[in-house]
Design brief:
There is one protein chain. Strand 14, helix 11 and strand 15 form a beta-alpha-beta unit. The protein is of the alpha/beta class. About 35% of the residues lie in helices and about 20% in strands. The protein folds into two domains: about 210 residues, Aldehyde Dehydrogenase, Chain A, domain 1, CATH 3.40.605; about 210 residues, Aldehyde Dehydrogenase, Chain A, domain 2. The strands form six sheets. A seven-stranded mixed sheet has the order 18-19-20-17-16-21-22, sandwiched between helices. The N terminus is likely disordered. Keywords: NAD, Oxidoreductase. GO terms for molecular function: aldehyde dehydrogenase (NAD+) activity; L-glutamate gamma-semialdehyde dehydrogenase activity. One of its GO terms (cellular component) is mitochondrion. InterPro entries: Ald_DH/histidinol_DH, Ald_DH_C, Ald_DH_CS_CYS, Ald_DH_N, Aldehyde_DH_dom, ALDH7A1-like.
Length: about 600
Amino acid sequence: MHSTDQIVFLFNPSQGKTYHKLLEELPRREDPRNQISFTSASATMNRILVSRQLRARAPQTALSWFTSLNISRSIHGVPFATVEVEEISGSQPAEVLNLVQGKWKNTNRWNTILDPLNGEPFIRVCEVDETGIQPFVESLSKCPKHGLHNPFKAPERYLMLGDISAKAGHMLSLPKVSDFFTRLIQRVAPKSYHQASGEVYVTQKFLENFSSDQVRFLARSFGVPGNHLGQQSHGFRWPYGPVAIITPFNFPLEIPVLQLMGALYMGNKPVLKVDSKVSIVMEQMMRLLHYCGLPTEDVDFINSDGQAMNKLLLEGNPRMTLFTGSSRVADKLAGDLKGRVKLEDAGFDWKILGPDVHEEDYVAWVCDQDAYACSGQKCSAQSMLFIHENWSKTSLLSKMKDLAERRNLEDLTIGPVLTFTTEAMLEHKNKLLQIPGSKVLFGGEPLTNHSIPPVYGAIEPTAIFVPLEEILKDKNYELVTREIFGPFQIVTDYKNDQLPLVLDALERMHAHLTAAVVSNDPLFLQEVIGNTVNGTTYAGLRARTTGAPQNHWFGPAGDPRGAGIGTPEAIKLVWSCHREIIYDVGPLPKQWKTPPST
């Protein structure tokens, strides 16, 4: 680093307040040689030239803010960023590094990620193989079982994390920062701008929710009077210490941030692995958190394949692992880690339209959003729709068809499917059509006129009708309820006296994440809710399966391994355990004598 560094900000006068706030947040040293000058480049563009002359041998603490700040890349008002979203391409690939023991590091092993929209090799991810996990194992081993903090140790960290959350939430509220993450999400997990920005917004609100004193409120204890003077029992929330977090591709920012911060709030030291296809988003978010004051040693960030990560978990022996992803991997981890896991695995999510028909246009729109937003790549996506015979007499299905057909690649309201190929989804469709009475309601064809690489999938929003009686047959049930993580749903109908058959179909499902009961009939709601188990169930005319915000629990039910996300209850359940401290300080009764043996 030169002794003189310049940071240049270009901004539009109409956005001046935003940039002034960013400028005010830049770390400043009490040094008269720090100069800030303003020059006008044109009538519509201004240049702020920030000249910081730094001592060649300045203390590391005074320069630590530079470790997560690539000055040459911060010209657009995103001071922590090391990439320019629009510049990422085959000719200028971005690079994603690993963070371990407080330092960003690379290796000699690079995984090239293809652009989901055109197939260009546009991101190089530095991946750790099985021979390179030792620094991560050592880092986890340095954290004791009682954590980085707990109610009796380093309580000031609760306050520090509250402050970091407030600053990070504020940063995400800045239009330039929000737009940066929204567009970055779109580059790696193509979805509409509205869907991507919604993910950033939920993350921002979560961080705001847990600012200031809210972090220490998570560790609130309780006391119960004892049997005699001087005795009291107190219950505390206690961290696990070293933990691991594994998150999928479909929500590159929201899921890892909410789980990571929950782990930190409760006093744990996490190692975080995000699907390499999208890990650039969380790498940039880690840099934002460092910029907001998070110590770089508090979190390790690893890119690896599943085999290397599995070895890290076995050798590093984290006290708890949070996994969000497929049921197959979840069950393997549960066995490998001897049950020390919390899971949010697959969700074959259902929606029931009750007997009361209201607001047909609205219900059709919500069905379309639930099934096809983010190209159906949500763990809460509507996988099966049960339509009461009263709804079958309406134009609901034709309206759903019209809504599905207006989705297009140009605005990414439909896009590439990252875990199923086109051939795999069409093969599943063809198998379903072999069931008597089944038919294509709409979709079912590959997308055309695109450059999505064949390693990914690209099909039209699809709905397949299968008769309820056929769904319930043993030979068909597993096929019909197979989760296709894409724009694909099963539709069936039922008569008023067939509700028990519908409930039987739901009882046989093994994944119980989200559900929707679309009805304002209280007796119908009571019947369905009382005979089902899904952990996040929406009920009423406006019920949906997707779009969970940060203000309520999101997670499965019916499984003791089930994880939650987003709320104080979820954080305490997943990232802490109960510890009871019984104080018994006396005094002894004045006439106490040693009693007989018992």
